[in-house]
Amino acid sequence: MSEPLPGVGVTPLSGLGTARWYRPDERPDPESVEAAAPETERERFADAQAQAREEIETERENTAERVGEEEAAVFDAHLQFLDDPQITDGVDEAIEDGAAAEAGVARAYGSAIEQFEGMEGMMAERADDMRDIRDRLLRILSGGERMDLETLPEGTVLLAERLTPSDTAQLDPERVAGFATATGGRTSHAAIFARSLGIPAVVGVGEDLLAIDEGADVAIDATNDAVIVDPDEETRERVTTSRDIEVRSEPVETADGVEIEVAANLGTTAELDGAVDQGADGIGLYRTEFLFLDREQPPDEDEQFESYVDALEAFPDGRVVVRTLDIGGDKPIPYLDAEAEENPFLGNRGIRRSLDEDSDLFESQLRALLRTAAEGDGRLSVMFPLVSTTEELDAALDAVDAAAESLDEEGIEYERPELGVMIETPAAVMMADELASRLDFFSIGTNDLSQYVMAASRENDAVAHLHDPLHPAVLRAIHRSVEAAHDNDAWIGMCGEMAGDPSVTKLLVGLGLDELSMSAVTIPEVKAGITETDTESAEELAERALGASTKLKYVKR
Fold first, then answer.
1. Secondary structure (DSSP) of 134-149
2. In 214-271, where does DSSP find H-type helix?
3. Whole-prediction pTM value?
4. Is 495 a catalytic residue?
């Protein structure tokens, strides 16, 4: 057995299989292709665009069905980039100068890739999107065949320098024992798809990954952030011994009788059945911005109402937590004309837009939610994203009052739902007592909270080691928020990726979380972990972690 290759485990899963390399770049040098007349090359490029567009639209549809609407939304950006005049004009100029369409595509998209790689945040991720489009066009132009990743042999461990969204969306969890990439971070498209599909995955392994031979026995130990070549018997047994996890449709308790709600994160009602099938107690995060994407105009009040009612009816005995519109520079919606920002995560997004330029949309959404609260037997809760000040919260609460007053004047039935905020910023943590005194609940978004507390961008691989929810600074922020909520008779949940990591379930129980919400695929194991946890020992673990000055490895069971 060789030394484990360290990387970033992006799913709390492990797998063992046979290495198979994915090398999509084996094609002729675009600059070596002999050019025909410019008119002919332009026609070849236009035909390639049309075929690429058809492929992307099909992949978007398949991804929305298999994985989820949130993940499928990346292909909307691909369609935009495919026809972006700033890029296609570059292709046309190269062809006019005598280049073949292949060379024009390589130059124009290569320039865009280089620009995006020099940026930070969400914009840096666009480099992989550009590579995806470039490689697709070059494959079509050269008449090459795409490696069929949907029909890989069972027990395959897929290795690649990188995986694009269109690559990862093809993977079948029944065939792929895991995958590893040389590049990428926890929030790369490959990582997001792996979590949604339930595939063991380690990314960002580096150049050492490239030395693994085709056909080697490889273990993907994502729980321990490692890739292991030719594992010994002990390692094989550890990574292949899967727990027979029962799907529990009923709420669960710790070993000593403390009930903890386990809910699902979702983006559209199309994901409801999957959440129910995995035993979700309810919805802990309904990302409503996906109702507003991939369309020419926003949904009206009635369309939103119907969607929210569908979610409520899927969990007649549970709670449905709806997050109001969270858009901005990091989630652009064309008809809202949100300007691109240099650092969109610190920009004009979430409640900031809802209280300003998107106030009309906010009003219609609140009216739809208040109407929904009066429907069915379920419990509706509404939370506001990126609240940092009490002034923002008070303004949001005033907007709820105004929506209720307008419905009352029109004689439309409504009820006031539970109201809460996302705890995502250090400011919200520091003001948690004042916020909780006005609210019914908190929900901690550990993805954003970790990056803001640690000053480490979620998309910057160079600081990926700092973007860690298990760092004592982040754990103390979580603990402070829990105490503030409970001191003010509010409940508190968590809907960030940390909530769905079964290896830290015991720690989260010890920190005092009342609810955990996650991708549906990890619900059964988190529920199992809760039933096996004794709160006294969990609280002792949390106390040790909170008192540490560095991250403690043993907070993961």
1. HHHHHHHHHTPPPP-G
2. 233-240
3. 0.74
4. yes
